[in-house]
Structure formats: C-alpha cells, structure tokens
Amino acid sequence: RRWNMILPQLVTPYAKLMSATSNGRHPVPTFCSSCMKTNCNGPSGRKLKVTCVYTKYLEEIYLDVCKCCPTSLQLLEWGLFPSAPVRPMLAVDLDQLDLVSMLFMVGAPNVMNWAETLTSCLARKGYVLGGQDVLCHRYGWALQYYQVMIDMVSQTVNNMIESSRK
To answer: Residue limits of the CxC2-like cysteine cluster KDZ transposase-associated domain (predicted)?
Structure first.
C-alpha cells in the first residue's frame, strides 16, 4: 500500500530528472529537496542512513527525515531509487536499474545472480554489505518498483498524448 501512495508522487520528479539529464546522459543536477510547506516544521532532526549501490562502488548517505518530503523523493533527486517506500536502507543508481531492466528484457531475469555478481565485484574493491542476501532482496524490490514507476511514466505520457488529441 505504501508503494501505491509513493510511486505516483515520483512520476513527475522522475520525468523532470530525465529532462534535466537528457535521459541520463548528463550528471544529476543538485536539487534542493528540503520541505517547502508552510505548516511543516522541517526536518525532524533525525537522519536516515542509506547505502547507495552504484556499479563501481557503495556510498552511505544521510537523509533528513521529514513528513512532507519523502525519503524516496529525496533519493530520486539524487538519481537513486529506494528499496522501500518509507525508511529505505538501500538505494540503487537509476542508470544501473535501467541497464538491468533492459538486460532482463532480452534474457532470463535473474535478480539473485545479478545481485551475487554485483556483490562479488564490489567485494573485490573492498565494499562489503552486511548480512546474507541483503543486496539480492532489497535490490529486487528496488528493481521491481522502479519498473512499475517506469510503466506509470509511460502511461502518463500516453494519457497526455490521448488527451491532446481530443
């Protein structure tokens, strides 16, 4: 249910990000994801640690927790997609999710093998994720809901085209 509430909020920011980066060809610009609502007290003072997965490295970032600016939106503005709609512990680079989505369109989808391969490659560089199958499960969730969001973006564009025809 939480994904159903969060994903529609990500469609427009994702489209803006793709426009600003020429569909990922340029670096992600720096956005300000701080809350702009007047009735919000701003960040709660709590920080959320998120491990970010890139092809060549892992990075830990800290996000401000605010009810008005979901962490999933903050991560999207950084070019990342969360593994959970609320309080994600892991986020994956959008370019990597796009690549894996395309790979799985032409070959048998196997998130477990992809995650194990990525974990091994990162471990060779000295990056280690704690826990068994941490990357596999969370990566799988990020990939699944990233693909759902991409479908929502396509449907939104199709609806806009259809409404302009009328």
So the answer is: 37-120
